[in-house]
Amino acid sequence: MSHRRAAPRRAAACAAALGAAALAAACAPAEGGLLGDVSDGSVTVGTTLDVPGLAGRDPGGRLDGLDIALAEEVLKRVADQLGEEEPQITWQPLAATDRDNALRGGEIDVVTGAFAPDAAANPAVALAGPYLEAQPAYLGRAGELSGPADAAGETWCVVAGSPEVAEVVSGPRPGRVLELASTRDCVESVRRGTVALVVADAARLSGFERLAPESLETGRFDGTKPVAYGLAVHAGDDDAKAALDRALREIEADGTLSRLVAEHLPGAEGVSAAAPGEE
Questions:
Q1: Closest Cα partner for 128 from 202, 187, 45, 192?
Q2: What is the pLDDT of residues 121-174, one digit of tens each?
Q3: Rounded CA gap, 244 and 203, in Å?
Q4: Beta carbons of 94 and 48 less than 8 angstroms apart
Q5: What residue ranges define each of the domains in the chain, with the CATH number in brackets?
Q6: Strand, coil or helix: what is 40?
Q7: Alpha-helix runs per DSSP H in the chain
Q8: pLDDT tens per residue, range 154-166
Q9: What is the helix (H) or strand (E) element at residue 63, kind and residue range?
Q10: What is the CA radius of gyration of the chain?
C-alpha cells in the first residue's frame, strides 16, 4: 500500500494556505510524507535524547522515555490504520531550534516534544495532539530556593527555542537569561553554580530531580498555562496529522497513554496525559 501519490495534493493545499511566496520555504516535504514512509516501513523521528523520563538512554544504553514509547505506540497504530506492518524507527537527536528546518527539508518525518501555544499557527508544521500537558516549572539546587522570587536578579537558564522562554520575562525577573542548547546543559549549569535556576516545564525537569533529589529541587510557576506536547509533521500533511490524532485518541481511550505517563514520569507533579479533541 503506497501513499506516494498524495504528496502533490498535500503540497497544493500547503501552497494555497501559505501563498506562493512561502511555498519554497515551507511546502517541500519529502515525497509521500509520513504515511508514505510508514507504508515503506521506515520512519525518522526527531526528539531530544538527553532528558530522563522523556527521551534518553537507560543504564543498558537502550532508548527509553515517554516520547520514545509514545512515538513507537502511535506509529504502530498508524501502521494498523494503513494495514501495514509496524515501521522501523530511526531516532534523530533534534534541538528545539532545528525542528522547523528539519521538517521543511524532509530530514524528519515527525517530531515529538513541547511546543509553544501558538505552534498551531506555525506555517512550517502541522501539529497533532496534544498527548501531554505540563506546567511551566523551575529547577534549582536543593534547599536554596523556596520559589523563583528567591532567584530574582540572578541568571536563569532556558533552552533556546523552548516554549517557556516567555516565562522568564514575567513575574520575578532574572538579572540575565542564558539560552543553552539543551535542558541537560542548563541543569549542569545549575550544578556548577553558574546559573540560579532552569526554567522549563514540569515533565522535562522531573526526571532530573528524581535522579538526584539530594541536590536538585523543582517547583512550578503559579497561574501559568500548561505547555502542550504534540507530534509535528510537515505543514500540509493533513492526512498524517489526522492519522496521528486518531492514534492518540485510541491510546487515550484504552488507557495506554495514562499508563505510559505513569511509567515514565512517576510522581511528576504538574503533568497530565492529554488527547486531541474529536474531528
A1: 45
A2: 677 789 999 999 999 999 999 999 888 889 999 999 999 888 776 666 666 777
A3: 21
A4: yes
A5: 34-134+226-273 (3.40.190.10), 136-220 (3.40.190.10)
A6: helix
A7: 6-18, 20-26, 33-40, 66-82, 99-104, 183-192, 202-211, 238-253, 256-264
A8: 999 999 888 776 6
A9: strand 63-64
A10: 19
Specify whether the CB–CB gap between 168 and 177 falls below 8 A.
Answer: yes
Cell of 117: 501555544
CB of 195 within 8 A of CB of 187?
A: no
Of 165, 156, 157, 163, nearest to 184 (Cα)?
157
Helix (H, G, I), strand (E, B) or coil at 41: coil
Q: Is 35 helix (H, G, I), strand (E, B) or coil?
A: helix
d(CA 244, CA 231): 8
Residues 157, 199: Cα–Cα separation, whole Å: 6
Q: Note the pTM of the prediction, 2 decimals.
A: 0.84
Q: Compute how many other C-beta atoms are within 10 angstroms of the C-beta atom of residue 136.
A: 26
